[in-house]
């Protein structure tokens, strides 16, 4: 587990929407556009719509989260090498509480839960001060996926250090 303390500042931008260009960096905007193109006229694309080959240079910065019906409610299904580098460890198969302090894990899970409840993307600009006094600043995009077109069963995410 990384030794992250409570964040000195946790900063969130408005959720991605029609004004998404004001909130997401160019790489996350490309990921949003990819997700938007895959959903077509549906509310959400399905996991089967996402083709890793089509993601190209975005792939190292992408991660998938299973949305579970009981606690723990979120489990990292897979993560690109860039995601693992930011977190200092492999996320695959872990939950937020496996890799964060209880306070930060609860905040991360609340953000994931909000995407599921609101049924819309979320773009966050996050600033953290770690226990070793290192400063993290990154942006993350969380996009809902649904295999049946109604129930959000996975989150498709991208993360970049800023």
User: Which CATH C-level class is it?
Assistant: Alpha Beta
Assembly of the depicted chains: single chain
Major beta sheet, strand line-up: 2-1-5-4-3
Going by helix content, strand content and strand pairing, the class is alpha+beta
Task: Please describe the biggest sheet, giving its number of strands, its sense, and whether it closes into a barrel.
Answer: 5 strands, antiparallel
Spans of at least 5 consecutive residues whose pLDDT stays below 50 are 1-21
Question: What secondary-structure arrangement, pairings included, does this model have?
Answer:
Elements: H1 26-39, H2 52-55, E1 62-67, E2 74-79, H3 81-87, H4 96-99, H5 102-118, E3 122-129, E4 135-145, E5 154-161
Antiparallel strand pairs: 1-2, 1-5, 3-4, 4-5
What does the model show?
The protein is of the alpha+beta class and 162 residues long. The chain has a single domain, classed as Beta-Lactamase (2-Layer Sandwich), CATH 3.30.450.20. The protein is built from 5 helices and 5 strands, in the order ααββαααβββ. It has helices at 26-39, 52-55, 81-87, 96-99, 102-118; strands spanning 62-67, 74-79, 122-129, 135-145, 154-161. The longest helix has 17 residues, at 102-118. The chain is globular. Mean pLDDT is 83; it is low at 1-21.
Give a short overview:
The protein is built from five helices and five strands, in the order ααββαααβββ. With 162 residues, it is α+β, with helices and mostly antiparallel strands. The protein has a five-stranded antiparallel sheet with strand order 2-1-5-4-3, sandwiched between helices.
């Amino acid at each position: 587990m990384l030794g992250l303390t409570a964040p000195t500042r946790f900063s969130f931008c408005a959720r991605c929407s029609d004004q998404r260009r004001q909130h997401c960096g160019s790489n996350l905007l490309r990921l949003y556009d990819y997700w938007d193109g895959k959903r077509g006229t549906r509310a959400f694309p399905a996991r089967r719509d996402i083709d890793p080959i089509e993601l190209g240079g975005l792939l190292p910065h992408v991660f998938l989260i299973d949305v579970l019906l009981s606690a723990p409610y979120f489990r990292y299904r897979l993560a690109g090498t860039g995601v693992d580098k930011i977190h200092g460890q492999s996320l695959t198969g872990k939950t937020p509480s496996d890799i964060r302090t209880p306070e930060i894990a609860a905040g991360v899970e609340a953000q994931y839960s909000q995407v599921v409840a609101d049924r819309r993307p979320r773009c966050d600009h996050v600033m953290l001060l770690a226990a070793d006094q290192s400063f993290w600043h990154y942006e993350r995009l969380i996009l809902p996926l649904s295999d049946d077109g109604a129930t959000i069963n996975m989150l498709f995410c991208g993360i970049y250090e800023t």
